[in-house]
Structures are given as structure tokens and as C-alpha cells.
From TrEMBL:
One of its GO terms (molecular function) is isomerase activity. InterPro entries: A-D-PHexomutase_a/b/a-I (IPR005844), A-D-PHexomutase_a/b/a-I/II/III (IPR016055), A-D-PHexomutase_a/b/a-II (IPR005845), A-D-PHexomutase_a/b/a-III (IPR005846), A-D-PHexomutase_C_sf (IPR036900), A-D-PHexomutase_CS (IPR016066), Alpha-D-phosphohexomutase_SF (IPR005841). Residues 43-181, 204-305, 317-435 form the Alpha-D-phosphohexomutase alpha/beta/alpha domain. This is Phospho-sugar mutase. It is an enzyme of class 5 (isomerase). Gene3D superfamilies: Alpha-D-Glucose-1,6-Bisphosphate, subunit A, domain 3, Alpha-D-phosphohexomutase, C-terminal domain. Keywords: Isomerase, Magnesium, Metal-binding, Phosphoprotein. Belongs to the phosphohexose mutase family. PROSITE patterns: PGM_PMM.
Length: 569
């Protein structure tokens, strides 16, 4: 506690604003527990950059923590690109304070002699990724906390290739930031170096989205879409992209169309949670729509609902959407003719079905740690290869490489293309998915996500993962564990034969058990939220589409037994 108190008192100098000092003094005098939470650590970069609760303190998002990160990034850029006219582009989402924090970040960059392109109003994260290369920038920043609750905000850093920072840049940037004190931040803006941008970049991004996501599907006139931006940024792009691709029957949920960082109509603006799409699904049922699409606040994740075999709207999960999108792209590429350098990609906790499809089409399959920065890194590391598409279980997808992060704008268009064409063919999005299960095996996944907040929560997560590793599971649902993959040690061991092999992926706190029947259980802490996550994947054969409901129920029962067996319920 002495160290925490000392750190807090360092914020009482004249460098900090009077209101900041007043609040800290109040905490010192009256609220020891809150003071601890705000100062027990510094904000850290995770899988999606720096993200946390807004407020005063080293463990909060504020002008000083973002200012220090920006100062460190400025110093790093000037070292790496010494003698160059350095340029960065900054975007921000709908969250409280995103616009003012973005302005602060722009001012710090400019104070360090760096040219800044600052979007005039909120924009999507995929447009920011696109803008980095479109404007020939050295880096990009987006102020967003993605789908986190309203009290959160964040700071995602993109590098010259348009992808998020990855090793070695991330470690080097963090070291640069950590070498600074808050008093090292230069807040003295050079306004002549800040250029406000808007419609020119919008136009280029929308054109590129339509070019990459439009496959001239049949049946667009007869295809009805309900769309919700969940109070976020996608309202600035998706309606226009759909319109230009030929979709006229797009019904927007007006109650959720206005950007609002309080997200007043939803408990959580996360399309991974079915409740977030409830208003749109209800509307779709009322008007007989074919599809519902909803996006998170910064428009990198999308949730999709389509009509199931009974004709009711049903949300498809991230793995299901990814599989069908990838199958569609592979088919389209096959029609043109494969050149032999194509690949698809996903993450280690996503469905193994992606690898099965890659083998079926004869294209390379790459897998990465959780987070799209790793898929972006693949594209950068293998410039001779052609990235077709890929995604992850957490409702993110990327079509081609014109955007180097998950992109709900283009993915929304792609999903509509698949569904419209399927309907025109006398099928549906859902039936096409079932056909995939017949062709490649019926894979079904389930996620358990446990929230553990604060300093004690962080320790609890650490202990849970330690226990999961030190007390290895021997069997799952009657099937012996065959492989244990420890991404902390970069080793995979066959516990039945003793065989060991290296894991050629950066170290991470992830442990995966795989059984003889292909069931997989993965455990990892979230990189952006105070959560520990357990991913369950099961599979079996589906001999024909007519047996889908029966086999699906069997897999559900198996997942339920696994949850009970591992005490995850």
C-alpha cells in the first residue's frame, strides 16, 4: 500500500490539472480501496491495445495515461523513422470522451513534430485501419473500447501496414512508454500539424468495401435486412455500403441508430450476446425480414441472425458465420482458379473446422493467437501469399487484406451476399451452413466467460489458469486427453505416447487439451477485459442434412456434460 500511496501522491504536483489533484486527494483521505484499484498498476497493452475504465489514476484511461502512451509512441516513431516526415491518422468511436481524448492524442503528436490526420467525427475501426495505408501514414490510433461497458475507453495502435502493433514493435513501444514520467508528456500542440479529414477517406473506404464484399449475388430485390449499429460507428458506413451493393430493403433500427456512449437500449453493446440484437430480431419477425445484422460500437464485430429450419430468426455464432463466409470466398476463388499461394486463417481458440475446409480446397491454413493483430501479422510476414479471408470465434471477420483488422463493414456485405444468393437458389444461409457440416463434419463450440474484477480478480484468474495447468485433465466426456498444448512453454505433448513437438506461435498464457475424439478445451485470460475464458469444441459426422436437429442435440448434450465435468457451470 505504501507504493500505491506514493504513486498516487506523485499526481499531486502542479503538472496535473487542479480537478485531478482534488479527486486524488479525496481518494487518499476517504477511499483506500478505490485508490488501490486506480494506482496498483499501469495501464497495459493487451490483445487489442490499451483498454480500461475511464477516470483518474495510472490504471485508468485519461489524458495523462493516453498522453504518456502517445509521447512514448512519438519518441519511438522518431527513432524508427528518423529524418522522415512522420504522419499518423487518428479516429474515435461513440464513447464518452472519445472525441476529446482523440484531440489530446493529436495534440501530443503535433507537439512532437508529427503530422496528424484527425477524423472530424466518429468513424469505424476498419476505416482507421484502411486509412493508415490510404494516407501513407506511419501509424494510426483509434480511441475505442470496442464492445466493453460504457465506463470503458481504449487506445489501439496500428502500424505502417495498417495492422495492429505486434512483436517486436509492441514491446519496444511499451519499453519507451515505461521509460517516461508523466511530466515528460509534451501537451503543447502545434495546430499547423493537425489536419481534419472526413469525406474523401470515407469515399475511398466505402468503394473498397463494396469492391471486396460485393459478388453480384442474385435476389437482392427480394432480400430484406434489418440493421442495427447498437448506437455505434457503423451507421457511418454500413447503410451506404449496402445501398451501393444493390440492397434497397434495409430497415434500420432507428432507436439504436444515434451514436451514444451510454448505449441506452442495451445492457451490453456486444453482438456476441443475443440480448444486444433482441430489438432488431423482434423487428425482423414482425416484418418478415431475411436477416438481422448488428455491430459493436467500433464496427469490427458483427452479429448475424437468420431464419432457421423452422423459419424463426436465430443468431449464428462467430464460428458459424466464419465458416460459411470462408466457404463462400473459397468457392469464388476456386471459380477463378487457385494460383497455389492462397491461405485462410483463424485463431487457436476458434473452430477446427476451418483447417478441415482448407485441406478440402487445397489452400494453406494458418492459425494464430487470439486477436486479429496476429492475422494481420501473417499478411505482413508472408507478402508472397494471398490472404482470402479469415476470422475468429468472437464475431470478427476480415475479407481480403485491404483492411488489416476485423471488419464488420465488409463482412456485413459479404454475409448479405451469401444469404441473398442462397435464397435465390432456393436455399438459405442456415441451410448452406448445414451443408457445410455434412461436407466437413459437424463442429459445435461453446464459450464460458467468467468475470473477475479488480486486483483480487486478477489474482483469481491467475490461480484458475495455474490450477488448470498443474492438475491436468485426463479425459473429457469419456474420451482420453491425447494432446496438451501449453502456449506458455511453446510445447505440445502427446500424453499417450510421450511425443513432444514445438508450437511455432508466440508465447501466451493459453492451455489447450485435445482428446482422442477431437474434443478441444482451451483456457485463456482475456487480453482486454477482467475475464477468464474457456472454449469448448466438439465434433461428429453429419451424414445428411435431415439429421441435423438430432445430431445438434447430441452435441449440445455433450457440451453440457463437459461443462459439468470441468465445474465450469
Amino acid at each position: 500500500m505504501d507504493t500505491i500511496l506514493e504513486t498516487a501522491k506523485s499526481w499531486l504536483t502542479d503538472f496535473f490539472d487542479p480537478k485531478v489533484k482534488e479527486e486524488i486527494q479525496h481518494l487518499i483521505d476517504n477511499d483506500t480501496e478505490e485508490l488501490k484499484d486506480r494506482f496498483y498498476k499501469n495501464m497495459e497493452f493487451g490483445t487489442g491495445g490499451m483498454r480500461g475504465v475511464m477516470g483518474v489514476g495510472t490504471n485508468r484511461i485519461n489524458k495523462y495515461t493516453l498522453g504518456k502512451s502517445t509521447q512514448g509512441l512519438s519518441n519511438y516513431l522518431k527513432k524508427v523513422y528518423a529524418g522522415e516526415d512522420i504522419k499518423v491518422v487518428i479516429a474515435f468511436d461513440c464513447r464518452h470522451n472519445s472525441d476529446t481524448l482523440a484531440r489530446t492524442v493529436a495534440e501530443v503528436f503535433s507537439a512532437n513534430g508529427i503530422h496528424v490526420y484527425l477524423f472530424s467525427e466518429l468513424r469505424t475501426t476498419p476505416e482507421l485501419s484502411f486509412a493508415v495505408r490510404h494516407l501513407n501514414c506511419h501509424a494510426g490510433i483509434v480511441l475505442t473500447a470496442s464492445h466493453n461497458p460504457p465506463e470503458y475507453n481504449g487506445y489501439k495502435v496500428y502500424w505502417t501496414d495498417g495492422g495492429q502493433i505486434v512483436p517486436p514493435q509492441d514491446g519496444e513501444i511499451i519499453a519507451e512508454i515505461n521509460s517516461l514520467g508523466f511530466e515528460d508528456i509534451n501537451f503543447n500542440a502545434n495546430e499547423s500539424l493537425i489536419t481534419v479529414i472526413d469525406t474523401d477517406v470515407d469515399e475511398a473506404f466505402i468503394e473498397a468495401s463494396v469492391k471486396n464484399g460485393n459478388f453480384n449475388a442474385a435476389g437482392k430485390d427480394d432480400f430484406k435486412i434489418v440493421f442495427t449499429s447498437l448506437h455505434g460507428t457503423s451507421i457511418t458506413a454500413i447503410p451506404e455500403v449496402l445501398k451501393r451493393a444493390g440492397y434497397e430493403n434495409v430497415i434500420i433500427i432507428e432507436e439504436q441508430a444515434k451514436p451514444d456512449g451510454s448505449f441506452p437500449t442495451v445492457k451490453s453493446p456486444n453482438p456476441e450476446e443475443s440480448a444486444a440484437l433482441s430489438m432488431a430480431v423482434k423487428k425482423a419477425e414482425e416484418i418478415g425480414a431475411d436477416m438481422v445484422v448488428g455491430t459493436d460500437p467500433d464496427s469490427d464485430r458483427l452479429g448475424i441472425a437468420v431464419r432457421n429450419l423452422e423459419g424463426k430468426m436465430q443468431i449464428v455464432n462467430g464460428n458459424q458465420a466464419m465458416v460459411l463466409m470462408t466457404k463462400f470466398l473459397l468457392e469464388k476463388r476456386k471459380e477463378k482458379g487457385f494460383k497455389g499461394n492462397e491461405f485462410i486463417a483463424t485463431t487457436i481458440v476458434s473452430t477446427p473446422m476451418m483447417e478441415v475446409m482448407a485441406k478440402a480446397y487445397g489452400v494453406e491454413f494458418k492459425t494464430a493467437l487470439t486477436g486479429f493483430k496476429w492475422i494481420g501479422k501473417m499478411i505482413k510476414d508472408f507478402p508472397q501469399s494471398d490472404f482470402i479471408g479469415g476470422g475468429e470465434e468472437s464475431f470478427g471477420y476480415m475479407v481480403g487484406d485491404f483492411v488489416r483488422d476485423k471488419d464488420a463493414v465488409t463482412a456485413t456485405l459479404l454475409a448479405c451476399e451469401i444469404a441473398a444468393q442462397a435464397k435465390a437458389n432456393g436455399s438459405s444461409f442456415y441451410r448452406d451452413l448445414i451443408d457445410c457440416y455434412v461436407d466437413y463434419g459437424f463442429y459445435k463450440e461453446h464459450l464460458i466467460s467468467l468475470t473477475k474484477k479488480g486486483m483480487s480478480g486478477a489474482e483469481e484468474i491467475k490461480q484458475m489458469l495455474k490450477d488448470f495447468k498443474e492438475n491436468p485433465v485426463e479425459s473429457v466426456a469419456g474420451s482420453k486427453v491425447k494432446w496438451i498444448e501449453d502456449y506458455n512453454t511453446s510445447r505440445a505433448k502427446n500424453v499417450l505416447t510421450g511425443e513432444e513437438k514445438p508450437i511455432d506461435i508466440p508465447k501466451s498464457n493459453v492451455l489447450i487439451y485435445e482428446t482422442e475424439d477431437g474434443t478441444r478445451i482451451a483456457a485463456r485470460p482475456s487480453g482486454t477485459e477482467p475475464k477468464v475464458k474457456f472454449y469448448i469444441s466438439t465434433n461428429t459426422k453429419l451424414d445428411k442434412a435431415e439429421n441435423f436437429t438430432k445430431v445438434s442435440a447430441q452435441l449440445d448434450a455433450k457440451i453440457k456434460s463437459i461443462v459439468s465435468e470441468l465445474n465450469l457451470g
